[in-house]
């Protein structure tokens, strides 16, 4: 376990708690308590000891043509209607960086912004060939969000395998907040 105080604006690595399945980092960011949690148990096979949410996630992913970070980057540069949508909270983007050119839409309003029939949508959602690639931190919440978008008629919606952390690990462009 690490300890230490956080000054205003420090990154989210002030405290780390490890147990059998998770690593939780928490600390202050701009005077707000923030928590990042990473599961260490996602390598379990679905056949043995899987939870209902793991089964649900696997079921929803069956309808997605998920993309790896390199493919997402290439598609975002191709002008084929692909748009990267970053749904991570502001604290995560500030602490870990952001994908250049990604449209920031926090998860709680995603469906309204990307539904082509919504009066609150973004202009890109009304374009022919619109193909959003949803990005979360590790590629779990984004799978569920992408499937909801498909259910709303956004047929080319998908998500990024491994999320932002996989993008960053691949060495793809990342903007850091100063």
Automatic annotation (TrEMBL):
Name of a matching Pfam family: Rhodanese
Protein name: Rhodanese domain-containing protein
Residue span(s) of domain Rhodanese: 78-176
Domain of life: Eukaryota
InterPro entries (UniProt xref): Rhodanese-like_dom, Rhodanese-like_dom_sf
PROSITE patterns, sorted: RHODANESE_3
